[in-house]
Each structure stands twice: as structure tokens, then as C-alpha cells.
Specification:
The protein is α/β, with parallel strands linked by helices. It has 2 domains: 101 residues, no CATH class; 189 residues, Uracil-DNA Glycosylase, subunit E. It is built from 11 helices and 6 strands. A 6-stranded mixed sheet has the order 1-3-2-4-6-5, with helices on both faces. A hairpin with a 4-residue loop joins strand 5 and strand 6. Bound molecules: iron/sulfur cluster (SF4).
């Protein structure tokens, strides 16, 4: 047995990987095997290991085409027992990091922007479970809206009252019973229009909606309008008119003219709330005038009073 062969046998018995001599400035493929820690042994029990000698190039290793891909070492021989070779490769990998962390994330949609993407079914479901303002804690149920979703007429009131809160439908109490004949007076059945409110939940004791409540609930109504694309809007009562037109002008001064709502410039006419007309029946004449004005605005969208 030659010295190199004997040497290899010793090292194999010790479990120490072999480092081979460099050939032509290249490291043999065996040299890239990661050295394993030497077993904790009593040196006295270890077999004697010959000093490395300048051996003849290993013809097998020298012929390996893989050699050409391996970086050269500085020394002809690396010490075979120098198992202290640093094999701790620091991998610059954060294992806790999600592999997709570096991928661009789409910016989250704002609540209003997300609502503006919903269809009727999703919108109604969103309203039903809405807890975006304090009215969710006092409502019996939400009052989404009712009517023909292809309607040309959109009637917008203020907020659900006690009857609406109980039944889940707008304009079903005494005021609602007056709205129906008002619509019939201009040739419309209730089923032919769409009816909604500024707020989808009843304010306690029928108080006026706060500005915050109206603002928070507004995306729902705006989406209803976008989906419906009405040809005429009838704003019923002071609260509805002032909220839609973003003004505090008294209702008496908002009546009698055709307003335009939003980028689509939908004609909008203001009239009294039926609840007010129940208390002030002499004003019904003015409400009748408002309805006829709305009917004219629908027939002639370019008309101005
Ligand atoms: S009033 Fe509108 S914003 Fe407030 S909880 Fe009801 S649906 Fe949501």
C-alpha cells in the first residue's frame, strides 16, 4: 500500500474528509465536501497520521472536468487534520420573513373606495353587518332601501323611524302611508320607484342624524345611487336635502328649483317630508308643486325652473 493510500485509509477511519492536493491551480472536487467535525477522541488512541507530503497529482481528480469550476486554493496541501476549517456559512436569510414580503402589495382600499365596488347583493350585506357608527348598537335592524333597482325615480329620506326600524323598510309608518298617494298623484306606484334614506339605522328617539353619522353612512347611499343611476332624485325633508346638497340652507329656499347632484349632474328636487305634511296639511299644495317640478325635470333633463 502506498503512503497516499494508507493516509486515506487512516482519514476514512477517523471520519475526516480528505483534502487533495491542488492540480494546475485548481481544487479537486473532493475538496468541496464540507468537513465534518472530528470526533471527540483521545489523541492517544488515534492512529498515527503521516505528515502530508507532496504527492503526485491524482490523475482521476486532475482529469475531472468539475475541477475547472472550482476556485483555486493558495496552498498545495491543506492540512488533512485541520478540521478547524471554518465551515460556518452565514446565510443571509431571514427565516422568519415571508417569502412574499418583497413582492409589491396593492394598497388597501379605503372603506368608501371598497364600498364603491360592491354590487347590490354585496352592498346590502355590507349594510346589514355595518358597525361603522354608534347607531349599530341601538338599531333593531338596518334599513337598506326598497323598490325597483331599475327605477328612474329615487326618493331619499332622512333616516328610519320606529316603524322602519321594526320592519326593515323605509317609509312604512304614517309618513310612508302619505308618501304612497303623493307618488300616485304623479302616476307612480311605490314599486316603480326606489326609496332609501341618508342613514341606514334609526337614530334613538328619532333625533336628527349627527354630521358624523351622515358622513359615515354616505358611501352606502352613494353606491346605491351609482348602481341605480336614477334620472331624477326627490329629496324628502330638510335633513335629506341639506345632506345631499351639503348646505344648511332652509328647506323653504331649497324647494322650487332643480338642483344637480354629483358628477352625473342628476336632477334633484327638494320637497317636504310627509311627516311634516301630516303636521302641516296646508303645505301639501307646495309638495304637489314639487312633485310636478320633478316630473318636468325628468321629462326635460335640461330644464331649469
Ligand atoms: S347608520 Fe350607516 S354607518 Fe351607521 S351603523 Fe348604520 S349602516 Fe353603518
Amino acid at each position: 500500500m502506498t503512503d497516499p493510500q494508507r493516509r486515506r485509509q487512516y482519514l476514512a477511519e477517523l471520519g475526516i474528509p480528505l483534502w487533495l492536493p491542488r492540480h494546475d491551480g485548481l481544487l479537486s472536487t473532493a475538496a468541496v465536501e464540507a468537513p465534518t467535525p472530528a470526533p471527540a477522541s483521545d489523541p492517544a488512541l488515534l492512529p498515527a497520521v503521516p505528515e502530508p507530503v507532496a504527492a503526485a497529482p491524482d490523475p482521476v481528480a486532475a482529469d475531472s472536468p468539475l475541477d475547472r469550476d472550482i476556485a483555486p486554493l493558495d496552498a498545495d496541501w491543506e492540512p488533512c487534520l485541520d478540521v478547524g476549517v471554518d465551515i460556518d456559512v452565514e446565510l443571509d436569510i431571514d427565516v422568519d420573513r415571508d417569502v412574499n414580503d418583497d413582492a409589491p402589495h396593492p394598497a388597501p382600499l379605503s372603506r368608501a373606495a371598497r364600498i364603491a365596488t360592491l354590487d347590490w347583493t354585496a352592498l346590502e350585506a355590507e349594510v346589514r353587518q355595518c358597525q361603522s357608527c354608534g347607531l349599530c348598537t341601538t338599531r333593531t335592524q338596518t334599513v337598506f332601501g326598497v323598490g325597483d333597482r331599475q327605477a328612474r325615480w329615487l326618493v331619499i329620506g332622512e333616516a328610519p323611524g320606529a316603524d322602519e326600524d321594526r320592519q326593515g323598510e323605509p317609509f312604512v309608518g304614517r309618513a310612508g302611508k302619505l308618501l304612497n298617494p303623493m307618488l300616485q298623484a304623479i302616476g307612480l306606484r311605490r314599486e316603480q320607484v326606489y326609496i332609501a334614506n341618508i342613514l341606514k339605522c334609526r337614530p334613538p328617539d328619532n333625533r336628527d342624524p349627527t354630521p358624523d353619522e351622515a358622513t359615515t353612512c354616505r358611501p352606502f347611499l352613494e353606491r346605491q345611487i351609482a348602481l341605480l343611476q336614477p334620472r331624477i332624485i326627490l329629496a324628502v325633508g330638510r335633513i335629506a336635502a341639506q345632506n345631499l346638497l351639503a348646505t344648511d340652507t332652509p328647506i323653504g329656499k331649497l324647494r322650487g328649483r332643480i338642483h344637480r347632484l354629483g358628477p352625473a349632474r342628476i336632477p334633484l328636487v327638494v320637497t317636504y317630508h310627509p311627516a311634516y305634511l301630516l303636521r302641516s296639511p296646508r303645505e301639501k299644495r307646495k309638495a304637489w308643486d314639487d312633485l310636478r317640478l320633478a316630473r318636468r325635470a325628468l321629462a326635460n333633463p335640461a330644464a331649469t325652473p
